[in-house]
Amino acid sequence: MSTASFKIDINKIPDASNIKFGIVVSNWNSDITNNLLKGSLDLLKSKNVSNNNIKVINVPGSFELIYGCKKMQEQNVDVVIAIGSIIRGETKHFDFICNAISIGIKDLNVSKNCPIIFCVLTDDTMQQAIDRSGGKYGNKGTEAAIAAIKMALI
């Protein structure tokens, strides 16, 4: 799903005023993750979510999202959004981190009753990350907030 390839009809997204959201944000590549966070928060607020129903915590890097999400699931929220940005470097570190995060978040999803939405960009270049965090391909943070509302209502 790409917000750039279709127009979001805000009226088709359910009201979320009674849903409690947790958002865990990586500080690594903060220019990107802050844009993703803004996209999520803007969408949630447009669907009547009060600040009291949104908890945000920061973790140092994307690998730490797993533990942060686990702790957030314990905070009486209905759904968690994991926000991170990993940009390929010259070593295999990128592959190991991407794999560990996706498996870690998948494991939390199947072992707990609180869904986690995967909003971790895994890009080859900084430009790709910019394009997906409010640039020409929309904002994946917005898309993650839409998915969070839908999953919380299941």
Question: What would your notes on this structure say?
Answer:
- With 154 residues, this protein is of the alpha/beta class.
- It has a domain at 52-154: 3-Layer(aba) Sandwich (Rossmann fold), CATH 3.40.50.
- It contains 5 helices and 6 strands, in the order βαβαβαβαββα.
- It has helices at 30-46, 65-73, 93-111, 126-132, 140-152, and strands spanning 21-26, 54-59, 79-87, 116-123, 133-135, 138-139.
Short description:
By secondary structure, the chain is of the alpha/beta class. Helices cover 42% and strands 22% of the residues.
**What is the CATH architecture descriptor of the domain at 52-154?**
3-Layer(aba) Sandwich
Ends apart, CA distance between termini: 20 Å
Proportion of strand residues: 15-25%
Question: How many beta strands in the DSSP annotation?
Answer: 6
Cα shape: globular
Question: What would you give as the CATH superfamily of the domain at 52-154?
Answer: Lumazine/riboflavin synthase
